[in-house]
Amino acid sequence: xxxxxxxxxxxxAAIVAGDxxxxxxxxxxxxxxxxxxxxxxxxxxxxxxxAVQDTFVxxxxxxxxxxxxxxLRPWLYAVARNECHRRLRARGRTADLDEAGEVTDxxxxxxxxxxRGELRDLVRSAIAGLNPGEQxxxxxxxxxxxxxxxxxxxLGVPLNQAHALxxxxxxxxxxxxxxxxxxxxxRESCPELDALLxxxxxxxxxxxxKRVSRHIERCxxxxxxxxxxxSPAMLLSALPVFMLPPGLRHQVLQLVSDATPDAVSYRxxxxxxxxxxxxxxFPVPIFAIARVRPRGRTVAYAAAAARRxxxxxxxxxxxxxxxxxLDPVELPRAVQEAELVLDVLRQSDAxxxxxxxxxxxxxxxxxxASHPEEVRSFYQDTVAPIVSYDDQYGTDLAGTLEAYLEQNxxxxxxxxxxxxxxHTVAYRLERVRExxxxxxxxxEDRERLGLGLxxxxxxAPRLPx
Length: 465
What we know:
The protein is mainly α. Helices cover 66% and strands 0% of the residues. The protein has helices spanning 8-16, 20-41, 45-62, 72-91, 113-128, 132-143, 148-155, 159-185, 191-196, 206-218, 220-229, 232-236, 248-257, 261-274, 296-313, 331-347, 359-370, 372-381, 384-393, 397-406, 411-418, 422-436, 443-459.
């Protein structure tokens, strides 16, 4: 009787030879981890179970093409990832960890159920601040410990891109976790942090997270606390481990060996759907974790073509252009962004049509499309006081500030541009400082004021009159 395969090359050889023991060994070794990964991508437990099942169905028919049999583990993750994203496209939603029944590995206990629950909430809040691609990279690289070539294989990207994605995602997670940890535990030790978080409702918005992160960078007390308490890998261990459905192992092994016409037809359908596979034997990803940066000429050509088309259409009405999106799945976001631009151009009294497509505005429109409350919050924190003052007293502090920034902070040039005396400009800028708490004479404050003015220009049509 053939010995039970014990390492990945032996398992692959057994599966390719049609030995049921090979597939059973692969299932026993990797099914639990693959199922946990699928559950973090898919909302429905049944979908995750089906994705795991079909991953092993694909393995039974396609593993012969794997050039390096010792890379079975990342190959299975790559197949499972495609199976999940194929289902996501069909259903149009992702998983929420709170939706699923779960059992947490006892080894992940870091101080009892209550403390573990707090850690889960902490990690979930931090991960929620990452984009979907970063969330998936964090899942694969930290919880599932895929790195280097294995991470690249699972994601279907070049090795250097996998390194960059992992580094960026971990950095984002560490910043989010650090800000959350310090915000929740460090107020008693740092009066400045306590003042910064006055009235905080416990929800760390993007803007507040950035403020806390900047505070941590310049505060020795909070930076030390962050270094002591922050361990993303340890905190990720508090996330749930999902139980495999009872009977799934038997179902998988029975399906791949069933000779009935229905079973054979199903296996052939799953195998065809899993194609194509690359030269290394890994499946070609159906969903790119991060789009490859297009060459500058490609972006410039697309932007120029869009502007030419807009110029022709302007004879018939106002035209709104979004920023450049390469991935077709981002079409809804591009349409939403273009509609926001169009809304501003239609309703604004300011002549902003010429510069509305510049880099800073593109950034603001992207944020407005995805997190409108953040743009409004930034406006409220910067130039809203002077806009309200102008409305109440009929002054033009906002216009003076804008002219001052446009004239490269030259007081005489600003006075000439707005037909006012130099001392009048100085007085108005002092009022800006008093009302906003931001000094137009300081470079960092000027940047915030300038961005605040741009935010005002794009949300002005939606502000109450």
